[in-house]
Write a structure and sequence with these properties.
433 residues, mainly alpha, Ammonium transporter fold, 2 domains, two-stranded antiparallel ribbon, 2% strand
């Protein structure tokens, strides 16, 4: 029965809005990382998730996640189209309306598959991506939401995941790796990132939204909420500095892009542990994630995996690492509703976390690879070489992110009317005074 708390309800509506903002933030983050010819193609993949995932969530997604139970793996269709939910229906903690809980969880469903798109940028057709979005939500995301948060087998076993180390980052990162290995390398080398300021804008929006992502996962306003909020910022900051320091030492220059990527790695890694560990542990998680995720990306480069925007190295490895660190450092002193980890005398919990994240990694990789194979039977997943050469903005969407002057037009007019330059990436750019 609903016992409405207006403070909790207002807070959760705010957190829902913050998590929604993360998907446009992701679009800016990814859009800045690619070349000028593929900006809209990568950004639309985030924005279409905002529309189409909402449709799926309303039709059957919420119900499969949180209604009923089938062998601990998936729910049922009892609440399809939100049937049976009204103004008096309570959320799991009874202080906020179910409508708010549905909206909050929907925002998680929107951003998770959008994360994957950064791995196969410039290579996958929009039609294939839409089919992939539908299938991946249905056969990977929804089952893990149910198993971890919806009363399924992993939750009953005692696995903890505060805000999505398994449910969001690990399965998205492993899906990204499977996608890269299935689709293969880009035929045309991308000269991106074309706009690091755009990446910085996206990072800022992601970081801001992540407070709703992590602190909101407590589903109420209390001391755990405050701890999760603080841990989120601490881990992101220490990870950003750690990545910057390692990259500065190895590459001899302090790279802004490294600082930004390190912050996202820290945010991904603290996500499963934010509400279960101390701020001091958040420092450790931030430092470890900044270093480990940096070298994961280096390993990816060494193995020549064309994970274009490092989704596996940042989100896959970060989510995996966060679940393991939670198994080590969970502390009931900072969340009485949680448990203690290995370092606080509970080795069985660490074992459960390890088994759960290995299981999620295998499931996400296998199902993703398989569904891409099936989709390719109906429509080509990979675009043609000509489409890659032209750029997906033009070849698929018929649009351009930036208005550019034709080369013939650049060479018309008097010199004082025209500034002509090469932008450093091989693109001729003209501007008129």
């Amino acid at each position: 029965m609903l016992h409405l708390d207006t403070g909790n309800t207002g807070f959760m509506i705010l957190c829902t809005s913050l998590v929604m903002l993360m998907t446009p933030g992701l679009a800016f983050f990814y859009g800045g990382l690619v070349g000028r010819k593929n900006v809209l193609a990568i950004m639309i993949q985030s924005f279409v998730s905002m529309g189409w995932t909402t449709v799926i969530w309303y039709l059957y997604g919420y119900s499969l996640c949180f209604s009923g139970d089938w062998h601990g793996i998936i729910g049922n269709l009892h609440n399809a189209c939100l049937r049976g939910i009204d103004l008096t229906t309570a959320s799991p903690n009874n202080t906020i309306p179910m409508m708010v809980f549905i909206a909050y969880q929907m925002m998680f469903a929107i951003i998770t598959p959008a994360l994957i798109s950064g791995a196969f940028t410039n290579r996958v057709s929009f039609k294939a991506y839409c089919l992939f979005l539908t299938a991946w939500l249905t056969f990977v995301y929804f089952p893990f939401v149910h198993m971890v948060w919806g009363g399924g087998i992993l939750q009953r076993w005692g696995v903890l995941d505060f805000a999505g180390g398994i449910v969001v980052h690990n399965i998205a990162g492993l899906a990204a790796l499977a996608s890269v290995l299935y689709v293969g390398k880009r035929r045309i080398l991308d000269r991106g990132p074309h706009s690091i300021p755009l990446v910085a804008l996206g990072t800022g929006l992601l970081w801001f939204g992540w407070y709703g992502f992590n602190a909101g996962s407590e589903m109420r306003v209390d001391s755990v909420t405050a701890t999760a909020f603080l841990n989120t910022d601490i881990a992101a900051s220490f990870a950003a500095v750690a990545w910057l320091a390692v990259a500065w030492f190895r590459e001899r220059k302090p790279k802004f892009l490294g600082l930004l990527t390190g912050a996202v790695a820290g945010l991904a890694t603290i996500t499963p542990a934010a509400g279960y560990v101390s701020p001091t542990t958040a420092v450790i998680i931030g430092l470890v994630s900044g270093v480990v995720c940096y070298f994961a990306v280096e390993m990816k480069n060494h193995l020549h995996w064309d994970d274009a925007l490092d989704v596996w190295g940042v989100h896959g490895v970060g989510g995996f690492l966060g679940i393991l660190m939670l198994g080590l450092f969970a502390n009931k002193a900072f969340n009485p509703a949680g448990t203690n980890g290995l370092l606080y005398g509970n080795p069985s919990f660490f074992v459960k976390q390890v088994v759960a994240v290995l299981f999620s990694s295998v499931w996400a990789f296998a199902f993703t690879y398989g569904m891409l194979w099936v989709i390719n039977l109906f429509t080509p997943v990979k675009v043609t070489e000509m489409s890659e050469e032209l750029g997906l903005d033009e070849s698929i969407h018929g649009e351009h992110a930036y208005e550019t002057l034709e080369v013939e037009e650049l060479f018309q007019g008097e010199p004082h009317d025209l500034i002509e330059r090469i932008d450093g990436k091989g693109d001729l750019v003209g501007t008129r005074e």
